[in-house]
Amino acid sequence: MQYKLDVRAFFFNAKTDYLPYYKPFAMTLESDAKSIEILRVIKDANENFAYPEEKLVFRINDFVVTGEETIAQIVERFGTELQIDPVLSYRSNHCLVINDNDFMQRFELLAPYANDEDKAYYDSLYAQHYASESSRFNHDYIGDAILLLAHRMIANGSEHKEEILAAINDPYDGLNACEFENNLFDGEDHTATIEALHAMFERPTPNRFLEKISQKLSREAQAAHKVEKIKDVGIAFYQGQSDTPSQEEVFAAIKAAGANIVRFGRERKLCGRTLIGRQDNLAYLKAATTLLDALDSGADALIVADKADLEMFNKHFAGIQKRIGREIPIALMDMAQFKEITRKTEAA
C-alpha cells in the first residue's frame, strides 16, 4: 500500500540564515518504508536539506522519532499531513543536524560514580534526552536521561547514593525542573521513576501565608475574564493527561451550545502543575505557555478536564501572568461549569 504525504520540513543553516523557515514537499511512499525515507526524498528534492547520518533523532508532528518507524505507523498516528523538525530547534546547526555536545556534558555529572554498564545505558537514552519537555522551557535543564540513569544507579545499589542525588539536585536546572512527558513516538512513561527520585529528598513545607495571598490575587485577576453566554464564543479544551471527559464529549457539547471549537497545540501537554512547590518559576512558565497558546489560537474560554489542573490555573493565575509579563484574558472552567452556563443561557 502507498501513502501520499504532504510534508512541511524545517530549514535552517546557522552559517547563512537568521531565522528558520519551512518548505512544503509532496511524496508517495510505501507503507512499510521507514520514516527516514521522508528525509531522503526531501534531500533528493533540495540539496540544502540536512539530517544526521548517525544518531538520527528528529520530530514528526512534535513527537521524537528515530527514522525506524514505518510510514504505516506514522500515518496511523498522525495522518498524511506531517511536519518535520529537529529534535530541539534551538540546537539546530543545519536543518535536522544539531549540536549534541550537551548530551555527554550531562553524563559528566554522574561519570565519577558510573561503570561501563551505566555508560551504555545512558548512551541508549540519547533520544530520551532530546525528548525532554522541560528543555524547551529551560535550555540549561539537565535532561530526563541523566535522571533515569541516576535512579537506575541508586536502584542497583550504588554506594554513592548521596553524591548522585546531590549531582542532580540543582534547584533550577535539575530534578526540580522535571515534569515528565513521554514525547517519544514509541517511548515509556517514566513518571513513576521521576517521582521516586523526588521522594528521596526532603522538601520544604510550603508557605501557607504566601499561598493565601496568591489565591486572593488570582481571584481578583480573573474577575474581569468571565463568560456569561456561550453562543459564538471560541472555546478550547485542555485535556492534559486526563481521559475524562473525552474530547468527543466536550467538542459535541461545545458544538451543541452554538459555540466555536478552538484547537491549540498544547491541548494534551502538561501544564506545570506537578512542578508547584519544586520549581514554581518553571511551573508558571509552562502554565502561561499553555494558556497563551489557547488564547492566541482564538479561545475566549478554556474548558479544563482535570480539576487539579484547573485549581492550579486559578490559584496561581496572578503568578502565571506575572511570569509571562502579559495579561491572559481567558475564562477558565470545568465541564460542569460549562454545562451550567449553557443551561442558564438556554433558559434566558
List keywords for this structure.
4-stranded parallel sheet; 5-stranded mixed sheet; alpha/beta; Ubiquitin-like (UB roll); Rossmann fold; globular; 14 helices; 3 domains; Fumarate Reductase Iron-sulfur Protein, Chain B, domain 2; 348 residues
How does this model look, in words?
The chain has 14 helices and 11 strands. The chain has 348 residues and is of the alpha/beta class. It folds into 3 domains: 2-97, Beta-grasp domain (Ubiquitin-like (UB roll), Roll), CATH 3.10.20; 101-199, Alpha-helical ferredoxin (Fumarate Reductase Iron-sulfur Protein, Chain B, domain 2, Orthogonal Bundle), CATH 1.10.1060; 208-347, Rossmann fold (3-Layer(aba) Sandwich), CATH 3.40.50.11810. Strands 2-1-5-3-4 form a 5-stranded mixed β-sheet. Strands 9-8-10-11 form a 4-stranded parallel β-sheet, sandwiched between helices. Strands 6-7 form a two-stranded antiparallel sheet. Helix 6 crosses helix 8 (191-199) and helix 11 crosses helix 13. Mean pLDDT is 89; it is low at 205-218.
